Amino acid sequence: MSTTDNVPEQPKVSSARIIARNTMFSVGANFALRGLSLLFNILVIRQLGDASFGQYSVVLAWAGIFSFIGDLGIAQYMTREIARDKAKVTQLFWDVSTLRFLLAILAAVVTTLGAIANGYEGRVVLAIALYTSSYFLQAILAPLAGLIAGHERLDIVSVFTVIGQIIFMVFGALFLFAGFDFVWLVIASLINIPVLIALCVVVIRRNGYMPPRFHITPSSWWWLLKAGLPFAFIQLTLSSAYQFDRLILEKSFSESYVGWYSAAYTLTRAFLVVTAAFSSSLVLTLAREHATNPAVVRPWYYRSVRFMLFLGLPLAVGGSVLADKIIDIAYGAAYAPTAIAFAILMWDTPLLMYTSLGGNITTSIQKERKAAVIYACEAAFNIITNLILIPQYGVIAAAFTTVFTELVGVLLFYILFRREFGAGIGLTNALRLAVAAGLMGAALFLLRDVRVLESNTLSMGMMVVAGVVVYLGAVWGTGALTADERALLGRAFGKIGRKLKLKT
User: Fold this and answer.
1) Contact status, residue 167 vs residue 160, Cβ threshold 8 Å
2) Is 130 in contact with 190 (CB distance < 8 Å)?
3) Helix 273-292 to helix 15-66 angle, to the nearest 10 degrees?
4) Phi, psi of 33 (to 5 degrees)
5) Does residue 29 surpass a pLDDT of 90?
6) How many domains are contained in the chain?
7) Please, what's the b/e burial string for 464-499 (b: 16 or more CB within 10 A of its CB; e: otherwise)?
8) Which of 14, 122, 241, 503 could lock onto 382 through a cystine, CB 3.0 to 4.6 A?
9) What is the pLDDT of residues 171-199, one digit of tens each?
10) Are residues 438 and 421 in the same domain?
11) Measuring CA to CA, which residue among 53, 56, 62 is closest to residue 240?
12) Which domain holds residue 292?
């Protein structure tokens, strides 16, 4: 194995081009992934039924809460440090890999014994135990993927993510059609990891990202764990905030309630495809830029916030207005109770866009400890309100609590970045975007019961197109975009038009 000294020097590429490349690949991968996942989730929900799907959701929720133990943030810390300084691979790679394997043992024991102590039935405990076996494979995969991501090749990581999900969905579908239960879905999720490990090794060899020869320094492990703790704490608080509600629903009501809520929650996350890809692409490139030119981060932050408002507000309004129709198309009439939760949770979409961006920006500028405090406040608010409200009001309380939890995070991140970067979001333009989204919502409300075609899906498609046209027209008419943003949009459409003309 070669060291970083033997890695060929890469030509310097602008931050904008790297972010654009990683975003395009991530968006493409996420669109494919979201589309396939949506179809797969529909299959899972309809094949398992609400109760069994609820058990499967409980397995994922329980394992998700304890999964931070298997990493304790050290892999994310390694990825960030390699993005800032490629020479760090020599110092970190093998120690991170070894530590993750040792932590996987601890995580598997704690997660499984905790499930037994909590009184889960045998099949659920078995599924949780099987799930924890993935921690040992992830101890190999995560550092390898982090090595690739640290070289700002999220395009490759995105493609691998799609490949892994396709393998999972193929085997999962085969198991479901064979009549197997949710335990076999967990088994299906393990099959793809060895394949991804092999693919990572191939890419690392071909691109010269090779780590140094095997060498560990146990004396550095305590320092490494301390460096990773803020990331681990963020992961813990996020897992608690987004998984705890399912566990309370299961205890207070039944697995069916968990199934309804999980179906709505999963569908709302499908609308984050573009902003999630953009935010992930932003973090590593800005980490590198911040190391040499911290002033670069400020304009990227404000552009990103306006971009997310531009996309998030119409998604929230449109999703709420058309919630019952979207749920009917996705899951069928049997899941009609899910529509109310879905309409509420859609308002979490623009809020989550901002808090996800906030978490990534703090990582880039080495403020992850402050982000950890914000996420801790979110988790505390979420857990307390869920404990009080869910036993009384069920799924509706879980949905509202999720939205208000994210709102707490938005306010705290806004205060942090206002102090860090100063003013610059442009509240006047934001209000104009809100007006444009409101006009779109009114148009969709008037059109929602108009049946143009026999197919519900095609009718929905026409309503979505009409909503997009109204929204863009309102955005342009109200002057919601700045002059620079209008010029950028014009150049983008002009470039697309020229490419289409060349092809024809």
Assistant:
1) no
2) yes
3) 110
4) -65, -45
5) no
6) 2
7) eebbeebbeebbeebebbeeebeeeeeeeeeeeeee
8) 241
9) 999 999 898 989 999 999 999 999 999 99
10) no
11) 62
12) 22-425
